[in-house]
Design brief:
By secondary structure, the chain is α/β, with parallel strands linked by helices. The chain has a single domain, classed as Rossmann fold (3-Layer(aba) Sandwich). Helix content is 46%, strand content 21%. Helix 8 packs parallel to helix 11 and helix 10 packs across helix 12. The mean pLDDT is 96.
C-alpha cells in the first residue's frame, strides 16, 4: 500500500468510531444526495450490486433494499465492519462486505450489474485505473453511478471546512492529485468514464438541500468528531490560536444558517453514470 493510501487508511480507522456513532445523522442530512445517486443507479430487484468506498453505509444500506444482492467494500476494515454490523441489525441478509482497494478489485470479470460510489472516486491516486476496474467487473450493459463534489465555492464548504482552507492558505493540489474537488469541473467525470471505456455516459450538476436537524452547536460537535484527523492537520498549519479563531468563524457561519430547527447549508454536486 502506497504512502497516501496508508495515510487514508490510518485517518479513516481513527474516524471509524465517530462515523459509526453519527451514521444516522449523516444518513439523514445527506438523504437528498443519496436519492440522486440511487436515481442515477436505476436499481432493480434482479441486480447484483457493488458499492465502493462504502464508509459507514450510505448508499449501501438503503440500496440493498432495492437490489437482489449487494457487496459493500472499503479500503478501511473498520468502516467495513460498521456496515456489516448495521446490515445484521437491519436484517439485510443480501448485503455482504469485503475490504477492497477500488484500483485492484478482488472480483472476477463481469460479476456485477451495478456499481456505485459516493464521494470516493476523487480520492483514488489513480482514478483511471479504478474506473477501468469498475468497467471490468461490470457485466455487459451494467451501470456505474457516482457522486462527486462540484466547485468548493458553495454554502456547505464556505460555512465549514472552507474557512480552514482559506485561513491556512495551503497550496492547491495538482489537478490530478487526490482531493475532494478533483472532478469539480463540469464534464470532467463523464470524460473520465469515456476514457475508461463506458459506451453511454451522463453527468448532471445539482444543488441539493442538506439540512442538519439540530442546533449549530450539535452540528459542530458531530463534524469536529468525524473530521478530527483532518482538522488536526489544519490546527498544526494554523497554530492553536488561529485555529480557534477559525472555529469561532465556523460556528458563527452555522448560526447564520440556522432557522430555529435546522442548519441549512446547501451543497452542489455532480452525479454521473456510465453503461458498459
Amino acid at each position: 500500500m502506497n504512502a497516501y493510501k496508508e495515510q487514508v487508511r490510518q485517518e479513516w480507522t481513527e474516524s471509524a468510531g465517530p462515523w459509526g456513532r453519527w451514521h444516522a445523522r449523516f444518513a439523514e442530512q445527506f438523504s437528498g444526495v443519496t436519492e440522486l445517486l440511487v436515481a442515477a443507479a436505476a436499481p432493480t430487484r434482479e441486480m447484483r450490486a457493488l458499492d465502493l468506498a462504502c464508509g459507514s453505509g450510505v448508499p449501501a444500506l438503503p440500496l440493498a433494499r432495492r437490489v437482489g444482492s449487494l457487496v459493500a467494500t472499503d479500503l478501511v476494515p473498520d468502516m467495513v465492519k460498521i456496515v456489516a454490523d448495521s446490515a445484521r441489525a437491519q436484517g439485510l441478509g443480501n448485503l455482504t462486505t469485503q475490504t477492497a482497494d477500488m484500483e485492484a478489485l478482488p472480483f472476477e470479470d463481469a460479476q456485477f450489474d451495478l456499481v456505485t460510489c459516493r464521494f470516493g472516486l476523487m480520492f483514488c491516486p489513480d482514478y483511471g485505473q479504478a474506473l477501468r476496474e469498475i468497467h471490468r467487473v461490470l457485466k455487459p450493459g451494467g451501470r456505474a453511478a457516482f457522486v462527486v463534489w462540484a466547485a468548493p465555492d458553495q454554502p456547505f464548504f464556505n460555512a465549514t471546512s472552507g474557512v480552514l482552507m482559506k485561513l491556512a492558505q495551503l497550496p492547491a493540489p495538482p489537478p490530478e492529485a487526490p482531493s475532494p474537488f478533483r472532478f469539480a469541473k463540469p464534464g470532467s467525470l463523464s470524460d473520465a468514464l469515456s476514457r475508461a471505456g463506458f459506451a453511454q455516459r451522463d453527468e448532471r450538476t445539482h444543488e441539493v438541500s442538506m439540512p442538519f436537524h439540530g442546533t449549530p452547536a450539535q452540528m459542530w460537535e458531530v463534524y469536529s468528531d468525524v473530521q478530527r484527523a483532518i482538522f488536526r492537520r489544519f490546527e498544526v498549519a494554523l497554530g492553536p490560536e488561529r485555529y480557534q479563531d477559525a472555529v469561532k468563524q465556523i460556528r458563527a457561519n452555522l448560526e447564520a444558517h440556522f432557522d430555529g430547527k435546522s442548519v441549512n447549508t446547501p451543497a452542489r454536486i455532480h452525479v454521473a453514470w456510465g453503461v458498459k
